[in-house]
């Protein structure tokens, strides 16, 4: 199992290229299921989750081919597919559930494993099921699988007004994709407004879908008979960009994040500015300059849906609060178990107390290197940030979590001057 060895204490300087967003690429790969024509994605990040999604699509019979330098992958989902997502693949990546909506919409049937639990929380998919049922699907759960089909005599899903009980990102994406091929109009109320949802909607529009209101909480979709192929560039990963903002802020330094979109990171940038970090949008990206974590002012925040502070940035910003001056509170409102980095940060010398969904961080810690264990994707990133600042050596174990969602993170950090290497065993 690979590990990362970090020698802390080097400020980050230079330029880093931000990759395409994992959470846009995954639904966009599933959108290829909606048409028999070729779908070309550009700027697909090189990630383990992308490889898993490709395997899942391949297993159904979708042909795919990598091309060019710029993360290009083409997909062709022929008419004869096996519309099934088996447990062996779904269990390793919850986003596999994104195949359900497109399969049902195009083929009138789908068998997709229930994703089960996950380290950061229970994460049910009841809203995906409820929404598709509102569109006329018959869904039963048997032997751990969601078996979805259309009622006898019905060849398409039917448009519906759907209001999800909570805002759900992949739920919105699943229903959005399903609605593109449904008969009549679908209105999604309480829809997720994340940039990844908007990027998917823009791709679907290129494929011929009729969508309005994406980027707001009310999306309306007028179903069409068929969609066609398209070429689409995956939007830049705001969470990868935010992670590098926090890494530069913590270590001190000056870096340019090429392709990063400042307009997708307002809530995080506001907190960084209040902390004393300089962040400016520039042509083609974003610049960040920081005097170093110990000279910053700790910031309290609570995670909420977009455009609020993203839960996917909570762990990384907490690493910054550990170093900064003052006491801060961090409230996690999206997932019930997303503080697993806290115990590991404490092993490096952080002072954090947890009470339910609230963590109180006493700043000004002097971190010293230790062996720590990555527990989930963003938790891993926060440990790497802490390791970049800690004195001596930090060994981050179980970095397969990191590889799921960051495109060669250690290479990018090394490019900025960090002393970091991968140990493969
Ligand atoms: N929820 C339900 N029922 C549902 C759907 C969601 O109860 O049917 C609950 C969840 O348990 C959670 C909340 O609603 O408490 C929000 O979950 P959401 O459905 O929005 O999360 P997701 O779609 O499964 C995506 C990202 C996550 C990110 C969350 C929140 C993808 C592939 N994943 O997950 O990304 O944390 O939205 O923004 O888009 C990551 O990249 O590290 C990651 C975990």
TrEMBL record:
Keywords: Cell cycle, Cell division, Cell shape, Cell wall biogenesis/degradation, Cytoplasm, Peptidoglycan synthesis, Pyruvate, Transferase. The active site is at residue 118. CDD domains: UdpNAET (cd01555). It holds the Pfam family EPSP_synthase. Residues 7-413 form the Enolpyruvate transferase domain. One of its GO terms (molecular function) is UDP-N-acetylglucosamine 1-carboxyvinyltransferase activity. It is found in: Cytoplasm. It catalyses: phosphoenolpyruvate + UDP-N-acetyl-alpha-D-glucosamine = UDP-N-acetyl-3-O-(1-carboxyvinyl)-alpha-D-glucosamine + phosphate. Phosphoenolpyruvate binds at residues 22-23. Its main location: cytoplasm. Its EC number is 2.5.1.7. InterPro entries: Enolpyruvate_Tfrase_dom, Enolpyruvate_Tfrase_sf, MurA_subfamily, RNA3'P_cycl/enolpyr_Trfase_a/b, UDP_GlcNAc_COvinyl_MurA. The modification 2-(S-cysteinyl)pyruvic acid O-phosphothioketal is found at residue 118. Pathway: Cell wall biogenesis; peptidoglycan biosynthesis. UDP-N-acetyl-alpha-D-glucosamine binds at residues 94, 123-127, 312, 334. Cell wall formation. Adds enolpyruvyl to UDP-N-acetylglucosamine. NCBIfam families: murA (TIGR01072), PRK09369.1 (NF006873). Belongs to the EPSP synthase family. MurA subfamily. PANTHER family: UDP-N-ACETYLGLUCOSAMINE 1-CARBOXYVINYLTRANSFERASE. This is UDP-N-acetylglucosamine 1-carboxyvinyltransferase. It comes from Diaphorobacter limosus.
């Amino acid at each position: 199992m690979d590990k990362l060895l970090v020698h802390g204490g080097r400020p980050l300087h230079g330029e880093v290229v931000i990759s395409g967003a994992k959470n846009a690429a995954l639904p966009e790969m599933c959108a290829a299921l909606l048409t028999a024509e070729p779908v070309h994605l550009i700027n697909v990040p090189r990630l383990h989750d992308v490889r898993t999604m490709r395997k899942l699509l391949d297993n159904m019979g979708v042909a795919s081919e990598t091309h060019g330098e710029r993360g290009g992958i083409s997909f062709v989902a022929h008419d004869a597919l096996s519309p099934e997502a088996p447990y062996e693949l779904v269990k390793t990546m919850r986003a596999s559930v994104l195949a359900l909506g497109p399969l049902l919409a195009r083929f009138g049937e789908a068998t997709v494993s229930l994703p089960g639990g996950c380290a950061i929380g229970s994460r049910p998919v009841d809203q995906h099921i409820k929404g598709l049922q509102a569109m006329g699907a018959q869904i039963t759960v048997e032997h751990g699988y969601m078996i979805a089909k259309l009622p006898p005599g019905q060849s398409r899903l039917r448009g519906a007004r759907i209001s999800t009980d909570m805002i759900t990102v992949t739920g919105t994406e699943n229903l959005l994709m399903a609605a593109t091929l449904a008969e009549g109009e679908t209105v999604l109320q309480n829809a997720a407004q994340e940039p990844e949802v908007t990027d998917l909607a823009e791709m679907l529009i290129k494929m011929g879908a009729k969508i309005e209101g994406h980027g707001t909480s009310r999306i309306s979709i007028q179903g069409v008979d068929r969609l066609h192929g398209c070429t689409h560039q995956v939007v830049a990963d705001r969470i990868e960009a935010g992670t590098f903002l926090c890494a530069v802020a913590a270590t001190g330094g000056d870096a340019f994040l090429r392709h990063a979109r400042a307009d997708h990171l307002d809530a995080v940038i506001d907190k960084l500015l209040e902390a004393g970090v300089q962040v400016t949008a520039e042509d083609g990206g974003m610049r960040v300059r920081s005097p170093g974590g110990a000279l910053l002012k700790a910031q309290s925040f609570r995670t909420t849906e977009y455009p609020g502070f993203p839960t996917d940035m909570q762990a990384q910003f907490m690493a910054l609060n550990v170093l900064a001056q003052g006491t801060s509170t961090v409230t996690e409102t999206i997932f019930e178990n997303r503080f697993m980095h806290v115990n590991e940060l404490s092993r490096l010398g952080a002072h954090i107390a947890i009470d339910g969904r609230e963590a109180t961080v006493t700043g000004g810690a002097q971190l010293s290197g230790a062996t720590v264990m990555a527990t989930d994707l963003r938790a891993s990133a926060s440990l790497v940030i802490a390791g970049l600042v800690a004195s001596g050596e930090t060994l981050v174990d179980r970095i397969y979590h990191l590889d799921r969602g960051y495109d060669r993170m250690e290479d990018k950090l090394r490019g900025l001057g960090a002393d970091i290497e991968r140990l493969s065993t």
